Amino acid sequence: MIYKFLFLISIILNLFLVFLLNKKKIKEFLNRSKIEEIEVAKIHSSFELRNVSSNLRSPKEDSIIRSFSISPDNNIVGMTSDYEAWIISTLSKVSKNIFEFGTCSGKTTYLMALNSSENSKITTITLNPNEINNIKKFDKDNESSYRNIKNESIYDKFLFSGTPEEKKIKVIFINSLDFNNTEFKEKMDFIFIDGGHTYSVVKNDSEKSFEMLKSNGIILWHDYVPGKRSSSDVVKYINSILDKKKIYKIKNTSLCLYKNY
Ligand SMILES: C[S@@+](CC[C@H](N)C(=O)[O-])C[C@H]1O[C@@H](n2cnc3c(N)ncnc32)[C@H](O)[C@@H]1O
Predict the structure, then answer these.
(1) How far is the CA of 105 from the centre of ligand 1 (A)?
(2) What is the pLDDT of residue 134?
(3) How would you label 68-79 residue by residue, b for 16+ Cβ within 10 Å and e otherwise?
(4) Which of these CATH numbers, 3.40.47.10, 3.40.50.11890, 3.30.420.40, 3.40.50.150, describes 35-259?
(5) pTM of the prediction?
């Protein structure tokens, strides 16, 4: 009897150990979604590569960008990866009217301004650091995404402040839930959704973006990471509209894409 009991305990312990060792993979499996992945070269011709030799392909002039790096020592919160930043910069080169939900340090805004044409306009909205205590948490909102909104709403000057590119940029300090998008409807070539990551805010920003997009315009969402707690509302919202809108996840990124064909 005692052997049977010990055998059972050892099976349970082993299962627990397997769970601990594969926690990340198990979480990813449970949170997998039916979203289709797309190669970056398929989203715009600018990303296509040219053959240099039989084993080497190089970016075309269309995707050579102006960029910069921020050292981790600078402790800037809420940033995109270099690869994601390159995708945003390249799309900015072919976009005249650009809109961004979520300015934060202004890293992505600055990249958009550095890479878009001289007559481009970039509008970016962000929360006023003095008003973050008025931000409401709604029932469906994930607690950790709600906390992040406060941690990321700390800037009132930006990486582009005082640069020549600043003239292309209009910063609006407003809660996107109160933002009236009437004057922007069907005007935008490129929209980047990287504001609050709570369900209520992602839903609001996405619905407003669909109305603001021009024909052939592109929306990108940041932070589609199944299994990551602070991204769970982004994943939940995007998954909930996949049957109505053709949205792709861009391979090797946390970016999702919608194109208004
Ligand atoms: C992840 S950061 C943006 C990072 C930035 N796009 C970058 O990559 O450099 C999130 C930003 O969204 C803003 N934000 C969060 N909730 C918002 C809301 N309800 N309305 C407007 N802005 C919001 C925050 O103030 C913060 O500036």
Answers:
(1) 9
(2) 87
(3) eeeeeeeebebb
(4) 3.40.50.150
(5) 0.90
